[in-house]
Amino acid sequence: MTRRWVSFALIAPLLAFLIVSFIVPVLLMLARAVTDRDLDRTWPASAAALRTWDGEGLPPDALARTVAREMLAAHRAGTLNRVANRLNYDLVGSRSLLYTTADRLAAGAPGETLADLARIDRRWARADIWTVMRHADGPLTSYYLLAALDRRIDTGGHILRVPREQAVFVDIFLRTFKIASLVALFCALLGYPVAYLLASLPRRIANPLLILVLLPFWTSALVRTAAWAVLLQTNGVVNDLLQYMGLVDAPVQLIYNRLGVYVAMTHVLLPFFILPLYGVMKGIDPTAMRAASSLGAPPLLAFLKVYLPQSLPGVAAGAVLVFTLAVGYYVTPALVGGGADQMISASIAFYTSQSLNWGMAAALSLLLLLPLLLMLFAGRTMVRTVPA
Amino acid sequence: MLMAGTRLPLVEFRGVEKRYAGGSAAAVAALDLAIGRGEFLTLLGPSGSGKTTTLMMLAGFETPTAGDIRLGGRSLADRPPHKRNMGVVFQNYALFPHMSVAQNLAFPLRVRGVKGRKAADKVVAALTLVKLDGLGDRRPHALSGGQRQRVALARALIFEPDIVLMDEPLGALDRQLREHLQIEIKRIQRALDLTILYVTHDQGEALALSDRVAVFAGGRMQQVGTPGAIYEHPANAFVAGFVGENNRLAGTLVARQGDRCAIQLAGGQIIRATAADPLLPGDKVVAMIRPEHVQPGAVPPACCSTLEIDVDEFAYHGDHRRIAANVPGAGSLIIRVPVDMAAQRGDRMTIGWCIDHCLAFSASEIEPGKTS
User: Fold this and answer.
1) Residues of B in Cβ contact (< 8 Å) with A301
2) Which residues of chain B are modeled with pLDDT < 50?
3) Which of A76, A357, A361, B106 has minimal Cβ neighbours within 10 Å of its Cβ?
4) Could you tell me whether strands B359-362 and B270-275 are parallel, antiparallel, or unpaired per DSSP bridges?
């Protein structure tokens, strides 16, 4: 009992640090995917009134009056920005509508009825701005998650696909998972023989080779990616070599397309595949292969029946690790990929730091996180069913 | 006198040598050895003596740097391990951890194209042979050490190999289990008329199991012969010291007549012994006498040599007692005496031995630290 408390006391500082600096912020961030408090915090009375409105056609004058009053108050308090931004996600132009209206109200224009507002700007007489405000009345929303799946909810509560020209996220998600899967596959094909070699060589030779594998770890991914840009460019080393060997007549496009992304990401992530696999392979009894051979199995058969099955937990661990890291890649596709090679992290970064739509960023992150958690769980199960 | 007469040699080592790149001494040098069909031959020696290397060369996992190894009269030089048809039992058993016991046993059958009913029957028979009936579905890690050893043995036998090679197969087991499995291995060898090449550093095991024992030291075979010949007539001081217990008394040869000689110990006492090496008066020698051949107290007159000792320690061993004694100026002695004998620390006693049992070897031959 005391030992348990001592153990707990020893990890407590780290645990507290993680909770404060990582777990809580992540949860708060992810919560933004399903909460919608901009309007209801800034305009509480309007939010309450919006919730009681049936949403049919145009709102009553009482609601218009409440909105006009709180709009003016928020404008004076300098908090109108929050509502304006929020409404602008759903309806482009809402931002300018709110600011011009607030300016006119501040200048003394009347705001007692819907007709008064419509006189300030005709858009107040249209249903869409009111529908959008009703959707934004909080505190919970399905809006971001649906939008992240290229879906939206109509005024009648039906889930619809967004028009084809606006649907981007499903494609980007599929592309992200495809790139990550292929990178994991390439890492497996390239990394397995290397890990095998490292595990079977005597330590004296294996250790320097292992350092070569680790070397890229000590270089930043950014630098390595930039190096690939130099190597793969139209007049780069690789193209020169291909032409010199007569394999191609003219320079091939090796970069700023999907090929460049695969090459650079596979290179950057390869150590993450090799190291766990190497660890597992080191644990495989080398005499098992000798035993297989003494029992009559030719080398290839011995490998397939005895070595390979025992190394699969390492392959699974490496593949899961590479896939998880690859799915979140952002810098590499941005530097060596084309416009059609951007992955979901680029969208998340866009919403986080450029459009400042954190709800959307959180929804995309959540949708990225869920399959990864499933994947880690599946990987764990797989490792457990193949005893080392 | 040493070869089992009627048996044909199945395996022959001819002038076999193994040197590792960068190693100064040969791991195995100038090895000539024949193994008869149906014979149980043990390679006995301390670690690093070349016995395991010899076994691995026969299995095909090491390549001789000189000489030739033959199986049934045909050279094995170009035959890879998987075509040698030899069952190998490894020291750590080398069972396949991802396969059940039955799958482990079926592995050599499967790679030979034996499948289905026939393979299943053989697996059941093999499990019965090693007394593991009903454990076919277990994974190796769910077995005890002794059970794993049995599975490894069954797997090495199931495909009816020409010879079974066993590399310290009982080394990882406790003493009682080891003795039990020794009997099992011997029973199976007799039942199936197996040819076995066995490697061990345990001289008791070698003596108990083998038809013949080959003693290795420093990469060279020191002596090969029946357990009795090895124990009673060691070819040199190393064999005398390594196989069984032996006492060593250092001295100088003072006289020799035929194979009888007289030795003056460092403390001045004269003892008599049988010269096992070509020795001349003045040579530094070591006289070796086994604890059970030393007789305490009154000594019969003929062909005997006597010596005065001081009792240092008197220890009870259940079925016998041991005296650790000091020979003034010449070292210490262990004497095995009946359990009913009484003595105590500080006693002075006279001991004696039959000259035939005390062997004198040239002192230069003995490697330091290699005697028991």
Assistant:
1) 111
2) 1-5, 368-372
3) A76
4) parallel
